[in-house]
Write a structure and sequence with these properties.
The protein has 589 residues and is mainly alpha-helical. It has two domains: 6-218, Orthogonal Bundle (Fumarase C, Chain B, domain 1); 228-443 and 454-509 and 523-588, Fumarase C, Chain A, domain 2 (Up-down Bundle), CATH 1.20.200.10. The chain has 23 helices and nine strands. The strands form four sheets. It has a three-stranded antiparallel beta sheet with strand order 4-6-7. It has a two-stranded parallel sheet with strand order 1-2. Helix 3 crosses helix 6. Mean pLDDT is 88; it is low at 492-529.
C-alpha cells in the first residue's frame, strides 16, 4: 500500500504535478495549512479591517463595493456578509453533467494553494474549511460547462464555494449514492443526514468581507483540467515511444535513426530524449545498429517509412509541448490569482492603497499551453494511426499477412481489420477537439470584461483528447502484440516472403547463431537475410510490455468481439501500467 501523501500549504511552498495528481485521485491524501501561513493571513486581514474601520468613507474595490460592472456600488459594513453570500450563489450558473470527481478535487487543492499565499485578504478559516472538505472527500458538484476563464472560472469556483457556506450540491461517492439514492445531494440535506448515514460532516462558513470574491476569482478549474491532462500526456508520450520501439521490431525496421550521435547534429531536446528512449528500448534487437547494406541485404529496402524513422522528430516536438505545458501550469498552480490582490507584505507597514486590481485571473497562459496538449494529442494519434494502417496492409507489413493474420489466413475471419478503422475515427475525433477556442474571445459583463480566454473549454478538451489517444495507442499495442505472435507462429515466413520479392535467390541460411560466431564477409548477407522469427523476437525491455498487453488483450486465435479488451488495454495505457511494464526509467532522461 502506498504511503499517505501529506501536503502542507504555506507562503512560498510549491505544489508539484505529483501533488495535484495525488489530490485528484487519492482519498488517503491529506492537505493542511501551515501555522506560519495562518499567522501571516491573520495579520494582513486584521490590518485591512482596522484601516477600513478607521475610514468609513473609504472605497476599496472588492472589499466594500460591488463587483465587475457593479464596481461603483458601495456596500455598508453590515451588508458585507450578504454581499459575499449573494455573489457565490448568483454565480452558480454552469450547466451540464457534473465535472469528474478528480477534476473538482484538484481544483480545491489549487484554490487553497493560491489563497494560502496570504495576499487575498481572507481568514485562514476559509482555506482550512476547503481543505477539510477535500480531506473528508466531501466534493462539491460542479456542472462542467460555461466558464470563460476570465475573471477566472467564476461559475465553477462558485459551485465549490457554495458547499463551503452550506449551499449548493455535493457530488456523492459510492457510499453516499447508496445512502441518498442519487449522484448529487443538496448540501443542506447532506448536513442534516450525514451522521445518520455514517458520512463525514463539516461546519459551513459564513463568508465575510472579500472572502466570496477570493474564492471564485482564479483559473484553478481550468488549470485542474489542464494539469491532469498534462499528467496523462506525460504517460502517453512514454507509451508512444514504446509503441514506436515495438513497431520497429514488428516491421523489422532499422534502429540507427534513434542513435544519440545522429540527434546531436540537430539537438532539439524533445527529439533527443525520445530517440534515447527508443534506442534503449531496442537494446538486443537484431537490427538496432544495422547498416544500410545490412538492410538492403535483408529486404531490399534502405529506409523505413516516416512513421518509424521520423518518430523522434515528431514525438519530440510533442514532448516539448507537454513539458512546456507542465512548466506553465505549475507556475499557475503556485500563483495568486484572485482580484484585487493585497501587495502588502507586512501588517506593520500596511497601506490600503497597496490593494491592487489586476488581471491575474485571466486564463490565457493556461489556454495557450492546454492547446499545446491538444496539438500533441492530434500529432501522436495520427502517427499511431499510420502505423496501424501499415500493420493491416499485407503489401507492406513484411510477411504478417492480411490484417496480421499470417501467410494463409482463414478467409472467414477478419482478425484486427476493423480496429484500424477505429483508430481513424478516434484520430478524427481528437482533431475535432482541437478547436482553438482561446482565439475566439467573446466579451462579457457589459463589455467590462472585453477579452476572455476560454481556457476551461480548451483544457477540458485536452483532458478528453488524452482519453481518445490512449485508445489509439492501445489499438496499436494490440497490433504489435499480434504481429509478434504471428511471426513466432510462422517461423521462416520472413525469409520466404523476401525470397519471392528477390526472385527466389535467397542464399542458404548459416548454421551459426546471432550471438558471437566467427563469420566472414562472404557469408554476412546470407546470414542476415535468413534471420529466423526467434532472432526477431522482442527486445529485453519490450518483451514484458507485450506480456502486459496480452493480459488485457490476448492474441487473436479466432475472431471475437474486440471492444472490451481494447478498452481494458486503454485503461492500462492511461494508468501507465503498460509503459511501466518495461521496467525502463523514462524519467531519468
Amino acid at each position: 500500500m502506498a504511503a499517505r501523501r501529506t501536503i502542507v500549504l504555506n507562503k512560498g511552498s510549491e505544489l508539484s504535478l505529483a501533488d495535484v495528481v495525488a489530490a485528484a485521485t487519492r482519498e488517503d491524501m491529506r492537505a493542511s495549512l501551515h501555522e506560519d501561513a495562518k499567522a501571516y493571513m491573520t495579520s494582513l486581514r486584521k490590518a485591512a479591517e482596522e484601516q477600513l474601520g478607521a475610514d468609513p468613507n473609504r472605497r476599496v474595490y472588492g472589499l466594500n463595493t460591488g463587483f465587475g460592472s457593479n464596481f461603483r456600488d458601495y456596500v455598508s459594513p453590515e451588508r458585507l456578509r450578504q454581499l459575499q453570500r449573494n455573489l457565490i450563489v448568483s454565480h452558480c450558473a454552469n450547466t451540464g453533467a457534473p465535472a469528474p470527481r478528480e477534476i473538482v478535487r484538484a481544483t480545491m487543492l489549487l484554490r487553497a494553494r493560491s489563497l494560502a499565499e496570504g495576499q487575498s485578504i481572507i481568514r485562514p478559516l476559509v482555506v482550512e474549511t476547503l481543505l477539510e472538505l477535500l480531506n473528508a472527500d466531501i466534493i462539491p458538484a460542479v456542472p462542467a460547462h460555461g466558464s470563460v476563464s476570465a475573471s477566472g472560472d467564476l461559475a465553477p469556483l462558485s459551485h465549490i464555494a457554495a458547499v463551503l457556506i452550506g449551499e449548493g450540491f455535493i457530488l456523492l461517492g459510492a457510499k453516499g449514492r447508496a445512502a441518498f439514492g442519487a449522484e448529487t445531494v443538496e448540501t443542506a440535506r447532506y448536513l442534516r443526514e450525514a451522521q445518520r448515514h455514517g458520512l463525514p460532516g463539516f461546519a459551513p462558513v459564513t463568508l465575510e468581507m472579500k472572502e466570496g470574491l477570493a474564492l471564485n476569482n482564479g483559473c484553478q478549474y481550468s488549470a485542474a483540467w489542464a494539469l491532469l491532462a498534462t499528467a496523462r500526456m506525460r504517460t502517453l508520450i512514454e507509451t508512444a515511444a514504446l509503441t514506436t520501439a515495438l513497431g520497429v521490431q514488428a516491421m523489422v525496421g532499422m534502429g540507427r535513426p534513434f542513435r544519440a550521435d545522429l540527434h546531436a547534429l540537430r539537438p532539439h531536446p524533445g527529439a533527443q530524449e525520445i530517440a534515447a528512449w527508443i534506442w534503449d528500448l531496442l537494446a538486443g534487437y537484431a537490427f538496432r545498429n544495422a547498416s544500410a547494406d545490412d538492410r538492403v541485404a535483408f529486404d531490399g529496402e534502405i529506409q523505413d517509412p516516416y512513421n518509424l524513422r521520423c518518430a523522434p522528430q515528431v514525438l519530440g516536438a510533442c514532448l516539448d509541448l507537454i513539458k512546456r505545458s507542465e512548466k506553465t501550469l505549475l507556475c499557475e498552480a503556485n500563483s495568486v490569482t484572485d482580484n484585487p490582490i493585497d501587495l502588502n507584505i507586512s501588517a506593520s507597514s500596511y497601506r490600503l492603497d497597496e490593494i491592487t486590481s489586476g488581471g491575474h485571473f485571466h486564463g490565457m497562459p493556461v489556454a495557450v499551453d492546454a492547446y499545446g496538449l491538444l496539438q500533441a494529442a492530434g500529432i501522436m494519434a495520427r502517427l499511431s494511426n499510420m502505423r496501424c494502417a501499415r500493420y493491416v496492409d499485407a503489401r507492406r507489413n513484411k510477411g504478417l499477412g492480411p490484417q496480421v493474420r499470417g501467410e494463409a489466413p482463414d478467409v472467414t475471419e477478419s482478425g484486427l481489420l476493423i480496429a484500424e478503422y477505429t483508430t481513424a475515427g478516434l484520430c478524427n475525433e481528437i482533431w475535432g477537439l482541437a478547436m482553438p477556442s482561446h482565439l475566439m474571445s467573446m466579451s462579457t459583463d457589459s463589455g467590462q470584461e472585453d477579452h476572455v480566454s476560454m481556457a476551461a473549454n480548451v483544457a477540458m478538451r485536452a483532458y478528453q483528447a488524452a482519453e481518445r489517444l490512449a485508445e489509439v495507442l492501445a489499438i496499436e499495442l494490440a497490433y504489435a502484440s499480434q504481429a509478434m505472435i504471428t511471426r513466432s507462429q510462422n517461423d521462416g515466413l520472413v525469409t520466404r516472403v523476401l525470397d519471392q520479392s528477390l526472385g527466389g535467390q535467397t542464399p542458404a541460411p548459416s548454421q551459426a547463431s546471432w550471438g558471437g560466431r566467427q563469420r566472414t564477409i562472404a557469408f554476412e548477407k546470407a546470414w542476415r537475410m535468413s534471420l529466423s522469427a526467434a532472432e526477431l523476437a522482442p527486445s529485453r525491455l519490450t518483451a514484458p510490455a507485450i506480456a502486459a498487453i496480452r493480459q488485457a488483450f490476448p492474441p487473436l486465435e479466432r475472431d471475437r468481439e474486440l471492444s472490451k479488451g481494447l478498452m481494458d488495454l486503454a485503461d492500462r495505457v492511461l494508468s501507465g501500467e503498460i509503459a511501466d511494464a518495461t521496467g525502463y526509467s523514462f524519467a531519468r532522461h
